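Subject — a protein and its fold

Tokens — whole-number codes for backbone shape
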Amino acid sequence: QVQLVESGGGLVQAGGSLRLSCAASGRTFSTYAMGWFRQAPGKEREFVAAISRNGINSNYADSVKGRFTISRDYAKNTGNLQMNNLKPEDTAVYYCAAHPTTYPNTYYNTYTRDREYDYWGQGTQVTVSS
């Protein structure tokens, strides 16, 4: 079992920045890859960013490349999403997710589909005003 709790959402003007955090517990932090997804009102949940178990590989949606940075802190068991140059279209509820795996050949894998994730946080609202 993995418990995930997001924080750091809020209201920001276009061009501003926010840093989301995802506090993880319940299972050794290095045994799962992590991802961030978002869901805007009336839209389906979409992939934002992912990071591998070992923190070396990352993957981003085209819409956030160059603006968002995913990272993970093994000392604090926390995943982070730094969001810069925010746009109104970034407004959504943001969710972190965990993909547990212990296979040795998955250390570098990232996962971009929500069905690949077994555990989810409750979400944090990000609102970007124009």
Summary: The longest strand covers residues 92-100.
